[in-house]
Amino acid sequence: MMNADSIEKFYRLYSKDVYIYTFSLCKNEQLAEDIMQEAFLKGILSLDDNHENVKAWLFMVCRNLWIDYIRKNEKLSKIDINEIEVEDCNSNILKKLVNNEESLNLYNKIITLPQSMKDALILYYYLEVPQQKIAQIMNISNGAVRTLIYRARKNLKMKMEE
Hints:
By secondary structure, the protein is mostly helical. It contains 9 helices and no strands.
């Protein structure tokens, strides 16, 4: 279990990336914060100070918490994840995290991609997670990650040209 200094450092180090990833999953500020809070609580309670890959672990926990949330909420489970309305991406928190208009435009296009493509791109480009760790987080092979990133970039290029 972590001490108070470790907890503060733990949060400062990973909160921005975890929030971006979680928001990309649920597209809702409040839910993203709730999922992130629960993931950090799980981390505080179960991780040692010397855990090997905390960031990947947090992303995996957030993804699992999001999936659990969808399963528990009957109303959402009957809706295709890709059809969920996107919350206004001009929110203050997101503006601070994605600071210029071009990046925000690109991010808005990314979140319209199918879920797996969106996850792969955000993890790889925004959060700089290596492909091997993305495969672990998404529970797919390294080759599948490369293919997802390739297809997502191709799809994104078409969206940007429109």
